[in-house]
């Protein structure tokens, strides 16, 4: 069993920045080997969409076109923590942001169906 807990959401003005964290816990998490961590988001009335992903061992990242150049995904292996630095935020970034973990998934083709664990989400609201 793996638990994922997001934090860092809140209210920010358009053009501003926010940094999200996702803390992972569980006795087996550190020994599971190769896996990837992902960020998804879901806005009211919309489907859950992919935002970013990172391979835990090599740190290879992949981003959705909508956030490329603005968001940066990173991780701290020692702390079992995933981060999402969000810059130049705009209204369309308003959503609940979820972190997720997967094994054997191509991060360039990640979908919600391919995730093995999910956090409960953290709300990001961008005002304009």
Describe, in plain words, how this protein is organized in 3D.
This protein is mainly β and 128 residues long. It is built from no helices and eleven strands. A hairpin with a 4-residue loop joins strand 7 (71-76) and strand 8 (81-86). The chain is globular, with a radius of gyration of 14 Å. The mean pLDDT is 92.
**Main beta sheet:** 7 strands, mixed
Total count of strands: 11
What's the tally of helices? Answer: 0
The low-confidence runs, each spanning 5 or more residues with pLDDT under 50, are none
Proportion of residues in β-strands: over 45%
Into which percent range does the helicity of residues fall? under 10%
- The backbone outline, from C-alpha atoms, is globular
Assembly annotation: single chain
The average pLDDT is: 92
- Structural class given helices, strands, pairing? mainly beta
Helix-strand pattern, N to C? EEEEEEEEEEE
Distance between the termini: 40 Å
Kindly provide the radius of gyration, computed on alpha-carbon positions and rounded to a whole number of angstroms. Answer: 14 Å
């Amino acid at each position: 069993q793996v638990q994922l807990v997001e934090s860092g959401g809140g209210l920010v003005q358009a053009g501003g920045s926010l940094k999200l964290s996702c803390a992972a816990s569980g006795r087996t998490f550190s020994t599971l080997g190769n896996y990837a961590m992902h960020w998804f988001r879901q806005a009211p009335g919309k489907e859950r969409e992919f935002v970013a992903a990172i391979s835990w061992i090599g740190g290879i990242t992949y981003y959705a076109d909508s956030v490329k150049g603005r968001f940066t995904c990173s991780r701290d292996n020692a702390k079992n923590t995933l981060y999402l630095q969000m810059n130049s935020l705009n209204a369309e970034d308003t959503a609940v942001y979820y972190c997720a973990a997967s094994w054997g998934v191509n991060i360039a083709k990640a979908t919600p169906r391919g995730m093995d664990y999910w956090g409960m989400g953290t709300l990001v609201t961008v005002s304009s």
